[in-house]
Specification:
The chain is an all-alpha fold. The chain has two helices and no strands. The chain has one domain. The longest helix is centred in the first third of the chain and has 11 residues. About 0% of the residues are buried.
């Protein structure tokens, strides 16, 4: 997941509700502006599944 979803409260909620373990991927501190993070499609696909969007 990206940095917008970091935090202990979010991680505990995901574990309690879905029994999943999430890994937050942050942009390297030395980079400025847009940085491509590894495997962003995994996050996008997961959110589509959770929202029942199957296009």
């Amino acid at each position: 997941m990206d940095g917008g979803y970091r935090g202990e409260d979010f991680a505990h909620w995901i574990i309690d509700v879905f029994r999943w373990i999430v890994e937050v991927v942050l942009r390297p501190l030395e980079k400025k502006g847009f940085t491509l993070l590894p495997k962003p499609w995994v996050v996008q696909r997961t959110f589509r599944w959770l929202n029942w969007c199957r296009r």
